[in-house]
Amino acid sequence: MSPRFLSIRRPINSDIKPSRTQDSPSLLLNGRNTNLAGRDLGRLLPPELLTVIFELAAQGHHNFPAVAVVLCRYWRATALGHAPLWSYIWLNHRSPHKKYLKWTQRLGDLPIPRSIAVVAVAQAGYLTDWKFLPMELDRLQSNNIGIQSFHLDSDEEMFSWALRNLSLDTFPEVSLHVDDGCVTKRPPSRYPSSFFWPTHDSRDDRSTHSISLRGVLIHFPWIHVDNITKLEIFQTSNDTFPDPDSLMMALRNMPHLQTFALEFFEDLKIIDFSTYEPVRLENLRHLQLAGSWSTNSFLRSLEIPNLHSFVIDRAFDPPLMALSIIASAGKPPPLRRLSISRSTVNSRRFLERLTLFPSVTSVYVVDVTSHPIRVAWSEHRQKDPEFLSTLQHFDVYQRNGNCQDLLSMKGPGTDSGSYGSYVNRHMDVAGDEQERRCRAIFDLVMQRTSLYPACFQTIASSLERESRAASTRFVRHSSSGWRLWRK
């Protein structure tokens, strides 16, 4: 999913122009002012269309139903009247059992699969709040009600409890993310040096088709991999990086794989993939590699003729060489989207590599050390205005979250010397909020969309965030609807 909201370029409808009077905002429609003050904009969408939008939003984040019912009366009535919306359940330590029962009540008797996300830390007695979950999952199974997806984002203690009490390998979509703030601080004896999944041979279960792991070692020999379409292995360490032999064997038996991500964020890990026979992944559309391991050697062991999206992050191997490897295997794949972050590249050579992919439409660069890309880009465009004319997005993000849109050049000007000026988007926040937004931008641009916003939070920061939330209240204002008031 392309992060379109990161770009301010929008086609403007000639019949609809923004206008503002002294009294209220309005629209200029075909030359006439139509005052929108006092109108319920939510009612502009019929319930049939709004419910479709609600379900798409709930798929993106399972807590959306909880938001929809408090925004306005029309949205609340629409959400409560559409029972399937409540099959998306997002639970944290704030009364999870009570919330689960309320969602189940709103869902009614519909025998449709549930999608459950659990964000929990086993601290301050919170673990006792989750004793209901194994019983509820067993009850669903006994009533022949399936679970479409199960996402667990937790610390080590909660994850250890989940492994003992939940059948985490029996769902079509499984996401198991162990808090990275705890992974590096393992107690010496209470927990294993690494968690592995699955915990028993589950090759007879052919339902799983999507796997997303973080801080967990995947044990391929106990998984039926033929039906896997999505495999994400985030933030591995020396303990959780998959065994190369098992990895290559598994990839060879994944004919339907469409998305693959593998990250390693510890000291350099050298692996010689040249000893393996090339693996052809005919259906792979998105490939994401990160960290200080032999990414280029791995790329040489793959045949990916239909790759649409490629992400390379914090690479020890040269990212430009990775692009050359992908393009050199016969006919270049129809690459449309490229993201490079936290790496060192030569700007001019980077632009030359982009010409190897005539289908590319979106390029995102985050925190890259190099000669300013905008300078090299301006030079190329001045010589050839049609250079990389297929691009629709070309955004360069700095470490602080500020962004420069290279396709919005205003022409030669004083702001950038002879290279013209660009639209710059600055982040007008600081501290924790700036860090949070930078993480969100990074994850979106790098297409780490499976990681929920609660991920990357240590237990201490989670409790601090809850403390800040406790000082915030919503109060009703007679003219402006719901209004946020902070103590």
How many beta-strand segments? 23
Helix content: 25-40%
CATH architecture of the domain at 208-408 and 429-451: Alpha-Beta Horseshoe
As for the CATH topology of the domain at 208-408 and 429-451, it is Leucine-rich repeat, LRR (right-handed beta-alpha superhelix)
Largest sheet: 14 strands, mixed
* Shape summary: globular
Could you list the spans in which at least 5 consecutive residues all have pLDDT below 50? 1-38, 182-193, 411-420, 452-463, 469-487
Whole-angstrom Rg: 25 Å
Number of helices: 14
Major sheet strand order: 4-5-6-7-9-11-12-14-16-17-18-19-20-21
Strand residue content: 15-25%
What is the CA–CA distance across the termini?
Answer: 38 Å
Top-tier CATH class of the domain at 208-408 and 429-451: Alpha Beta
Mean pLDDT: 77
Protein structure class = alpha/beta
